[in-house]
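[User]
Protein folding is very new to me. Any chance you could explain this protein sequence and its structure tokens? I have pasted everything here:
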Amino acid sequence: MLMGDSTRTMEAAIDQLFVEGQRHQPSVIYMPSLLEWCAAISGMSHSTMCAMLESLSPTDPILLLAIVDGPFSSLPCDVRSWSGLTCEHRLTLPSPTDNQRDAFFGSIIADLHHPPNQFADCMKRKREILEELPIAPPPEPRQPMATDLAVQEESDQRVITLLKYCLGPILAALKRKYEMFTKRATEEYDFEPPAPPVMEVEIVSTNMTIQDQDGVLEVLKTKLFKKLKAKR
């Protein structure tokens, strides 16, 4: 609250706080963490707070309620004097034990173990019969959109460029070291199968005349194959 308004100083905020407390009596000035408050404010603000407390009259119905997160002896000496010389204005709040916590939350824990029909204000309701639904089919696989394909293509091109950049020096060194392997195999060797040989055959035809006893003539035509040559 003291640092919420950046247009005024902390001393002015403390002064305004006490002015409002005296205007709206009875009032309470609440300090939630007195130990951290003393460590955070400046010396001028600390002096202003002490001066404003001393300006109050014992009959003013203004209560200063402060909480100390730690031992009371850790406070500065002048701050400890705000509560007086005796301990009647100080109240110690010890941490609760396990039994005290169980006793405080016992009724809530017991209600959590009760079914709904055992509460005092419960109403009897008919048990609802749920409809048996068929098992839902598995969802269809998500189809990539045009934007997804564009992003994937861009990522692939980036990977290809990076791969070329990383492998370029290695391939150049291999080409210089193993120059005999830089040419293609088709340039070094002839992998085409040889053409099959062409066979040349000469055909010789002859006519033969045969005459039997009855005077019948028969002409026979014969073919002789010779001179087989393989031509490549």
Observations:
- Confidence is low (pLDDT under 50) at residues 224-228.
- The first helix runs from residue 10 to 23.
- The first strand starts at residue 27 and ends at 31.
- The radius of gyration is 56 Å.
